[in-house]
Amino acid sequence: MTNETPQLPDVIQRFLAIEPGSTSHAGTLMACMIGVLAACAWMLGGFSMMISAGIAVSLMLFLTPMISPEILMKMLRANPLRPKDYPAIHEMMHLLCERAGLDHTPKLFILPGKGVNAITTGTDAQTTIAISSDALHDLSPRQMRAILAHEIAHAWHGDTRILLMTDVLYRATWTIALFGLAIFIFGDFNPPAWMVVLFGAVPTISFLLQRAVIRDREFAADHGASDLLNGPEDMIDALLHIDQINRRRLGLIPYRSTQPPTLLDTHPSVTARIKALRALKPGTWQKFFENRRMPGQ
User: Fold this and answer.
1) Which residues are CB-contacts of 50 (< 8 A; sequence separation ≥ 6)?
2) CA gap 76, 253 in Å, rounded
3) CA-closest candidate to residue 213, choices 281, 151, 167, 152
4) What is the SS3 assignment for 199-226?
5) Within a 13 Å sphere around the CA of 16, how many CA atoms are in the beta-carbon half?
6) For residues 230 and 224, what is the distance between their CA atoms, to the nearest angstrom?
7) What is the pLDDT at residue 281?
8) Domain Peptidase M48: where (predicted)?
9) Separation between Cα atoms, residue 30 and residue 84, nearest integer Å
């Protein structure tokens, strides 16, 4: 079963980060999520409800802690990747972080299970990158370096914070929509049918926008990896090889036969990611991080 979504117009596919666009637009997608939340709150209780929703989201962002990387690693049954066992990988990590200008070198862990996978969690000094066992044993040094560069780009962008924000926005929208439907069903208010349908659809709209933000960050991390590696060739080679490994090993797992379409997935298709990498102009290499230095760096 393919995970492409060809029925959507090209402009929609680019906006939802199913297909690559010319630039990252995560900010626009998050603004849309805020707009959906604000519209939902306004229809339910007017301007005062909008203000209340804004305050609630701000409090959630302030009070909701990120999952501790140590706790997440324990949940995933990941073990530390010790420098004495994998000195070359730690050297790669150090050199890439130095080139990216990161203040802290992420901690490395190894994930159990089949398939090639890597995740980045935490922020600043707590940043942690976990790499699957299959990645360690089945990728060449250049392919491994490409995966590390991709994850370092996630860390540099602060994508963990971005995903936390989108999660809070989605949960707030879902809560208001559910509250509205409960009022419509059990209260005395008799809303028009279109409003009931709209409140029922709002959580799905917010969910799709959240997924689009995540895919957009994947395209951006690929771009950052290409910059760190002085070109996209190693990243393209790594993506093709990883896709072959995962198709061969994960294809035996029953749920993979019902893989969701790209519209619902957290990653763009490998074809779309390679298309985006090949579209990068040589003049943009080595300038991605230089042009996007955070204040104070």
Assistant:
1) 38, 41, 42
2) 19
3) 167
4) HHHHHHHHHHHHHHHHHHHHHHHHHHHH
5) 23
6) 10
7) 79
8) 86-280
9) 42
